[in-house]
Amino acid sequence: MRDERAAPEWRVRADPAIRRRRRRRGWLIVAIILAVVLASTGGYVAWALNAPLPEPVVEWQTPDVSVPPAAPIAMPLEGAAAISVAGADDYLGPEAAGIWKSSGAADPRPMASISKLITALVILDAKPLASADDPGPTIAFDEADRDLFDKYYVLGATVAEMPRGNSMSLHDALATMLIPSASNYAEAVSTWAFGSQGAFVSAAQRWLADNGLTGTTIVEPTGLSARNTSTPSDMIAIGKIAAANPVIAQIAATRSLTLPGPGRMLNTNGVLGTSGITGLKTGTLGENDYTLLYTATLDVGTGQPLSVTGVMLGGFSRDSVSAGVVSLLDSIRAGFHNVPLSERGQQVGTYTTAWGSAGRMIVLDSASILTWSDTPLAVTMDTSAPETYEDGESVGTITWSAGPNTATIDVTLEGGIEQPTAWWRLTHPGELG
């Protein structure tokens, strides 16, 4: 075999076969080089046209929200008052279920006919009824009981006629004592339950001690004595005990009742049913000394209604006491409010891309949050890079929180964002992912 590599140059030029073999070898080398170049170029193009895009620059600002001012609580300016609110611990704090707000002195004051509420509780402690509808035992009234009508009438107290036939169920007797505040029934029923007034007073004192009511004194069952006194805090505790007793709670919530003997009786609590008031007992001791121990249920939008127990002692008049309590309850209700957070379509930011396109970030819907008084609002906004860059694509959320409540709305892309051209992709490799 000939070795053409060793052939002289003149021989190569003269031999056509050698020249053909060299041309074929050259073209093969060129083809290989061209294939490598084209493969590299095609790979770059494919990569550039499909590489992840750089994340856009986000500029955002949460919507301005106006926090309401502190809610003014309309505590009464006359006498002494206290209020307890249960069911609002997440808003008012757990201490609200004790004594949340108070005004005036905390020392004992005459409680007037609220004494009859204690009298009823002491009687039911000794003679319990099975349920609110249980009539209980029958009381047979005698001549001495009937004479009590004249006794208390002369004293200027509220009285009610004794029943026809001289007998009445314990339930109806308690209702006659509490609804129109009949003093003659307070003495008659307490004597029936304990045998004498002395025994009743002793039982009442034990009951007060057993319930830790050291700020309360009771010397007779009606409240006509100014020596029947209590503190606002003790009154709140007594109100809660009374409201938890189904018999007392039912009677206290009754606006009117008609019975044989007493006839039609109206509840002395003139604000019963107003501003959510559900009970309990009024009291009057001469001029310029009015009291009201009350319960109320307030629907403020928190899910479960709030349970309120309050008292006013030593008010100037029945009307001023009633107005003061209603104003206080209304001020609590007004302190809970829905704070507007955003409006549908409101712009909260922009996206700006490396290839010069931009888009608006808007909130998807309106939102509000329930708050109490001037509770501060906390707000966070989470955003993400668009995936499709299309109109309506979700690109984040805004979350507000206040007290126990949160409100979250979606942030979307409005109008979409124009995608980069192929030329931009091919000419900006350093900005692609």
Draw up the topology in text.
Elements: H1 9-14, H2 16-50, E1 57-60, E2 80-86, H3 89-92, E3 101-103, E4 109-110, H4 115-126, E5 138-140, H5 143-154, E6 167-169, H6 170-178, H7 183-194, H8 197-210, E7 229-230, H9 232-244, H10 246-252, E8 256-259, E9 263-266, E10 277-284, E11 290-298, E12 306-315, H11 318-335, E13 336-342, E14 347-352, E15 358-363, E16 367-372, E17 378-383, E18 394-402, E19 405-414, H12 422-427
Antiparallel strand pairs: 1-14, 2-3, 2-12, 4-7, 5-6, 8-9, 10-11, 11-12, 13-16, 14-15, 15-19, 17-18, 18-19
Helix pairs in contact: 4-7, 4-8, 5-7, 6-7, 7-8
Walk me through what this model shows.
The strands form six sheets. The protein has a six-stranded antiparallel β-sheet with strand order 1-14-15-19-18-17, with no helix packed on it. Strands 3-2-12-11-10 form a five-stranded antiparallel β-sheet, sandwiched between helices. Strands 4-7 form a two-stranded antiparallel sheet. The protein starts with 8 loop residues before the first helix and ends in a 6-residue tail after the last helix. The protein is rod-shaped. Helix content is about 35%, strand content about 25%. It has helices spanning about 10-15, 15-50, 90, 115-125, 145-155, 170-180, 185-195, 195-210, 230-245, 245-250, 320-335, 420-425, and strands at about 55-60, 80-85, 100-105, 110, 140, 165-170, 230, 255-260, 265, 275-285, 290-300, 305-315, 335-340, 345-350, 360-365, 365-370, 380-385, 395-400, 405-415. It has about 425 residues and is an alpha+beta fold. The model is unreliable at about 1-5 and about 30-40 (pLDDT under 50). The protein has twelve helices and 19 strands. It folds into three domains: about 5-50; about 55-65 and about 340-430, Peptidoglycan synthesis regulatory factor (PBP3), Domain 2 (Sandwich), CATH 2.60.410; about 80-315, Beta-lactamase (3-Layer(aba) Sandwich). A hairpin with a 5-residue loop joins strand 14 and strand 15.
